[in-house]
Design brief:
homotetramer; alpha+beta; Thiol Ester Dehydrase, Chain A; two-stranded antiparallel sheet; 8 strands; globular
Chain lengths: 143, 143, 143, 143
Amino acid sequence: MALITAEEIFEICRAEMPLVLDLGLEIEEIGEGRCRVRQPYRAAFVRPGGTISGPTMMGLADCAMWIAVMSVVGKAEMAVTASLNINFLKRPKPVALIAECRVLKSGRRLAYGEISLFSEGEEEEGPVAHVTCTYSLPPRGAP
Amino acid sequence: MALITAEEIFEICRAEMPLVLDLGLEIEEIGEGRCRVRQPYRAAFVRPGGTISGPTMMGLADCAMWIAVMSVVGKAEMAVTASLNINFLKRPKPVALIAECRVLKSGRRLAYGEISLFSEGEEEEGPVAHVTCTYSLPPRGAP
Amino acid sequence: MALITAEEIFEICRAEMPLVLDLGLEIEEIGEGRCRVRQPYRAAFVRPGGTISGPTMMGLADCAMWIAVMSVVGKAEMAVTASLNINFLKRPKPVALIAECRVLKSGRRLAYGEISLFSEGEEEEGPVAHVTCTYSLPPRGAP
Amino acid sequence: MALITAEEIFEICRAEMPLVLDLGLEIEEIGEGRCRVRQPYRAAFVRPGGTISGPTMMGLADCAMWIAVMSVVGKAEMAVTASLNINFLKRPKPVALIAECRVLKSGRRLAYGEISLFSEGEEEEGPVAHVTCTYSLPPRGAP
């Protein structure tokens, strides 16, 4: 069972991470070690060629991993990204993006997971990007 | 010699990438296969703990590489990020970020480079993040 | 259906890649865009602490991806690794290693996939390492 | 000043890592946070197309980072690779490989660095591969 709810995550964001709320992210599912997050489409994300910008996709993947980490270790908004590796596989459509995240390891100090990003409605055609990500966890007991 | 000027890059951004202009990026130096780009500090970039968000740093690195690639191959705004790997090394100060980018290889189809990110005024204390990045180049003759 | 058989792969190795045969790799399964490869345990792979060396795991993952790529594009032993990213998740036991590989994208010029490495008999306890890998494909028609 | 000598490193290898000695690696230089390591050419490293195999290059880079880490933190043969990212930039010649390694951060728990690999005698033509690597450090006081 997830150790945090979508509502608790949004409370953290309201208090401390206005940028996430500004992006309009929606948590469609959350379970232990996994989540599905939706990034609505916005014209501002677009780059030459009509595709969604890389930083938009990286930000979504990073945020999905942050949520999935908290689903395993509980409220730990001080967890920080240690590394992130993204591979862009095909041009996303100008529609919403879906991030499917799965934690592959959660240790005492580090959590590691993978995130597949899809154009909404085209999940069967394969991911538009694939990300692996390591988070550094705060010492237990710390906020 | 760089095959594109800072002014030509801003013209591309004005016409096609308003997001870059919105971030307020400044090109401090540009040479063949290298550039130095400055991201002014903004409160909106901050995440819990008072540090600059990961996506902000990824976006800056990605943009610096895009500029450095064009310094080698000329106007090629259709070049797209194929992959990006970022390692966060220490907590950036709440000040401007500096990206130093260097192209390590520019081939027919791919360009690869590295980017070190520094807190402005603290370059001697080492990078706050280190990035490697591959760009996929459009066929020559294409825009 | 896989476009190459395990036997055809071993023929290529016999003719041109003695190093692979020396490692004693076994192809346990091969399907279109996926394979399962077994690396028998050898004392020479061990490093201080009794664990299997990183290069041994990287070599296995790289080889599994090479096989999975050929399952999609056919005989293409000239396909070469463009990049490989490995994360070591826990100490492997001194037993055989299993690589499960899945191609996530196979394009005209590049193929990208992921590989999970397990200690044999402990697949349920999660991977000991996770790898993502890009192969550069030879032009079609080339050997 | 390096906190370990080349001779001390070879003693560790003789006692515990025969694989490294088998490869015939030579430490050409070692300083604080950097080293230059040479991998003599061997026919067994070759793969189809006459080029040196990826795993050979990964193993050399990993070993160079292990040495550079010990140059900063002292004898710490239990330091283990946490992640490694390699980009292959051009086909190496069938000659010796040179690894130039530089530690970019050495913290309490992790060390991060970069390694450029060159074909010996062709350093001016740029690296044949570029690697970034994170090592997990044993608690201080531990062997």
